[in-house]
């Protein structure tokens, strides 16, 4: 049967093939065990590094492949077909790397990007705090300029790959009086004086991904670790998230596709009332909706990622859409997959149980889906005001 | 160090079908893949290159389509590859195959280490590795499932599985080994190597390119010929034992005693 033709280039097709191969050969065989043990997927990170994937979005001059948002989406979609916890660990490194790529000085890029591209060092992105989630402007972590170095105090919460990553891009307040314009981005390295890690969270899903506190206790970092300009912190965070969000949408697409595949396969072989359950219209219609919504999500993510790569400016609304729709669909499709597998779907013996638990995070992290709707709504308001 | 891996394209065991009447494999519409053990041979070669330096060449004898197998080897990180291909090679038994491969390997330059899979899953002879070593005049170790590199001395310490237990042998290069699936976990391709492989020019070497005597290759050079193949029949008696586990065990012991097995 004809598949949708997204007119991928030969290189993009290669990215898809390779990441799918990794999902099938390396990730799927271990995903249930890593989910159970909450063990950090170092083995697979090594495979991804060996496959050059950490350099996907990094320019060739720093040892990367010079791909864009779209190439990144293609890769994470296929990896997510295997396991979104492992994919999140991979994607979080890009989230932490983007600020250096977008706002780093030549020295900072030369110092960090080659190691990041080679997968030698993982990166994490630290914005959220206990009192500042959706309302990121409420962060309290503060950095004080002490002449030849910065001193940071505060605690970041729920930081993906905290403790495992070696490079951290974090946002801290440098001028509280200036509000949102008083935040600044910094690079902190594991091993910096006064930088340690708090407790590792125990989670509903995404269990192979490590989520941990970053604790700054009179943490001293050299002057040249500032990223961008003083006061630019939230702009850096927003630009980073705008670029990363279609990737979260793509993770949703991969997860939804995996759940759909499981559901169709099961429905074809499960016999009740003397016939395969796929022969019941109620099941068929659910599957039809799941398939259509998954494909629609994919088309949306691809189109928006390509728009971003073509040099779009002010794409917050589009990138919010590319995260919002596919992740809501991933939640729905995984839930429906469990429904189609019935009691078996609720058991850990089948992969859809984990898929449904994992899906929920996609509607929460990198900005909740309510916040994405806020972004889209506010953009609409602005757009239509300009039209009058 | 000059490392050579010998690889073979075989029908994909997941899709291959068997023609019960003719007693042959149905090859139409079946995808070709690299012989599974050869992935372990490639991985071992890459690990040795990473430890010793040098380069890995992949060699395969087969039709021109076998370039795809070489391309895959390149995508895994093999440096270069060649397909030894000529109509005159058709119908080779292991004697002719080892002659042809040895000629090709000699043309590549004197090897330090040659690695083959334990056997090809289609022919299943397991003879090509040892035969090739004899032709190249180098020692060989078969069925390797552990490998330790003693770097300073260009020596490999190899664990070779035997029918009862194992041997641990130390061999100085040059040498040939055949490897088991348990030796290592093959790596995945890398994007950069995949792109390099896509564009790579893979030479096809014919009889004259490798300087072979035509009478020693292919059917002409093969004293062994397949006269017929047949499908094994399973006419053993089958019986399902019923009841509680204890009853089943009792019944089984009785049957085995009756049959004179115990
Ligand atoms: C597993 C995991 C990994 C994470 N990884 C990282 C990471 O690597 N780096 C990082 O910085 N952060 C990370 N986070 C944090 C994540 O981004 C936040 O959880 C998220 O932004 C939401 O913040 P919150 O949880 O504090 O929810 P809150 O902001 O407290 O929101 C609670 C509820 O209120 C709603 N809400 C809040 N404000 C509004 C509004 N204005 N309008 C409508 N609804 C609203 C929200 O949508 C939500 O439903 C991670 C979180 C988790 C769970």
Describe the structure.
The complex is a heterodimer of chains A (388) and B (262). Chain A is 54% helix and 15% strand. Chain A is built from 10 helices and 10 strands. In chain A, the strands form 3 sheets. In chain A, strands 1-4-5-8 form a 4-stranded mixed sheet. A 4-stranded antiparallel sheet of chain A has the order 2-3-7-6, covered by helices on one side. The N and C termini of chain A lie far apart (47 Å). The model of chain A has no long low-confidence stretch (mean pLDDT 97). Chain B has 262 residues and is an alpha/beta fold. Chain B has a 9-stranded mixed sheet with strand order 11-10-9-12-8-1-6-7-13, with helices on both faces. Helix content of chain B is 28%, strand content 25%. Chain B has a single domain, classed as 3-Layer(aba) Sandwich (Rossmann fold), CATH 3.40.50.620. Classes of the chains: A alpha+beta (388), B alpha/beta (262). The site of flavin-adenine dinucleotide (FAD) has 23 residues of chain A, from strand 1, strand 3 and helix 10.
Q: What's the arrangement of secondary structure elements?
A:
The complex is a heterodimer of chains A (388) and B (262).
Chain A: H1 10-37, H2 42-50, H3 69-82, H4 84-103, H5 106-117, E1 123-126, E2 142-145, E3 149-160, E4 167-173, E5 183-189, E6 195-200, E7 211-222, E8 226-227, H6 233-269, E9 271-272, E10 275-276, H7 281-309, H8 316-346, H9 352-362, H10 369-387
Parallel strand pairs in A: 1-4
Antiparallel strand pairs in A: 2-3, 3-7, 4-5, 5-8, 6-7, 9-10
Helix pairs in contact in A: 1-3, 3-4, 3-6, 3-7, 4-5, 4-6, 6-7, 6-8, 6-9, 7-8, 8-9, 8-10
Chain B: E1 2-6, E2 9-11, E3 17-19, E4 24-26, E5 32-34, H1 36-52, E6 55-61, H2 67-75, E7 80-84, H3 94-108, E8 113-117, H4 128-136, E9 140-150, E10 155-161, E11 166-172, E12 175-179, H5 191-199, E13 204-205, H6 245-258
Parallel strand pairs in B: 1-6, 1-8, 6-7, 7-13, 8-12, 9-12
Antiparallel strand pairs in B: 2-5, 3-4, 9-10, 10-11
Helix pairs in contact in B: 2-5, 3-4
The site of flavin-adenine dinucleotide has 23 residues of chain A, from strand 1, strand 3 and helix 10.
């Amino acid at each position: 049967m004809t598949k949708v033709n997204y007119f991928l280039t030969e290189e993009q097709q290669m990215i898809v093939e390779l990441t799918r191969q990794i999902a099938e050969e390396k990730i799927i065989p271990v995903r249930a065990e890593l989910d159970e043990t909450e063990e950090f997927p170092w083995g697979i990170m090594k495979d991804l590094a060996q496959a050059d994937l950490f350099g996907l979005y990094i320019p060739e001059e720093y040892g990367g492949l010079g791909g864009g948002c779209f190439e990144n989406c293609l890769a994470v979609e296929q990896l997510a077909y295997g396991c979104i916890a492992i994919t999140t660990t991979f994607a979080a490194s890009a989230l932490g790397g983007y600020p250096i790529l977008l706002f780093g000085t030549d020295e900072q890029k030369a110092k960090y990007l080659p190691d990041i591209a080679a997968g030698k060092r993982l990166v994490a992105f630290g914005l959220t705090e206990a009192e500042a989630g959706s309302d990121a402007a409420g962060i309290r972590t503060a950095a004080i300029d002490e002449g030849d170095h910065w001193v940071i105090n505060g605690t970041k919460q729920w930081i993906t790959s905290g403790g495992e990553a070696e490079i951290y891009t974090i946002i801290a307040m440098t001028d509280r009086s200036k509000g949102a314009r008083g935040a600044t981005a910094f690079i902190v390295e594991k091993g910096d004086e006064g930088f340690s890690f708090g407790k590792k969270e125990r989670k509903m899903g995404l269990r192979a991904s490590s989520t941990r506190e970053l604790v700054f206790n009179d943490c001293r970092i050299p002057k040249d670790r500032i990223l961008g300009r003083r006061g630019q912190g939230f702009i850096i965070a927003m630009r980073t998230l705008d670029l990363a969000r279609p990737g979260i949408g793509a993770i949703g697409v991969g997860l939804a596709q995996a759940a759909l595949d499981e559901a169709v396969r099961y429905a074809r072989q499960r016999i009740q009332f003397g016939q395969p359950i796929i022969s019941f219209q109620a099941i068929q219609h659910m599957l039809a909706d799941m398939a259509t919504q998954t494909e629609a999500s994919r088309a949306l993510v691809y189109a928006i990622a390509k728009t971003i790569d073509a040099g779009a400016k002010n794409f917050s609304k589009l990138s919010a859409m590319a995260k919002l729709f596919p992740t809501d669909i991933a939640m729905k499709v995984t839930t429906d997959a469990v429904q189609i597998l019935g009691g078996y779907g609720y058991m850990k013996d089948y992969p859809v149980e984990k898929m449904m638990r994992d899906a929920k995070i996609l509607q929460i992290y990198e900005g909740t889906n309510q916040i994405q709707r806020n972004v889209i709504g506010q953009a609409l308001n602005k757009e239509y005001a300009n039209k009058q | 160090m000059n490392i050579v891996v010998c690889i073979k394209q075989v029908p994909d065991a997941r899709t291959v079908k068997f023609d019960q009447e003719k007693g042959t494999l149905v090859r139409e519409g079946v995808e070709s893949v690299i012989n599974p053990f050869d992935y372990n041979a490639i991985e071992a070669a890459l690990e040795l290159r990473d430890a010793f330096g040098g380069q890995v060449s992949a060699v395969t004898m087969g039709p021109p389509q076998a370039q795809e197998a070489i391309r895959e080897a390149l995508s895994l990180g093999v440096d270069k590859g060649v397909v030894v291909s000529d109509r005159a090679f058709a119908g080779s038994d292991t004697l002719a195959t080892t002659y042809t491969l040895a000629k090709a390997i000699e043309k590549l330059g004197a090897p330090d280490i040659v690695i083959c899979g334990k056997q090809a899953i289609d022919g299943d002879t397991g003879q090509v590795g040892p035969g090739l070593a004899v032709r190249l005049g180098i020692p060989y170790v078969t069925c390797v499932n552990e490998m330790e590199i003693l770097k300073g001395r260009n020596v490999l310490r190899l664990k070779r599985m035997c029918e009862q237990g194992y041997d641990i042998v130390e061999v100085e290069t040059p040498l040939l080994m055949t490897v088991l699936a348990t030796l290592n976990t093959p790596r995945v391709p890398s994007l950069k190597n995949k792109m390099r492989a896509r564009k790579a020019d893979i030479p096809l070497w014919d009889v004259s390119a490798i300087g072979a005597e035509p009478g020693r290759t292919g059917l002409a050079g093969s004293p062994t010929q397949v006269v017929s193949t047949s499908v094994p029949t399973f006419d053993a008696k089958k019986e399902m034992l019923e009841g509680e586990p204890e009853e089943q065990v009792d019944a089984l012991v009785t049957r085995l005693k009756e049959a004179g097995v115990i």
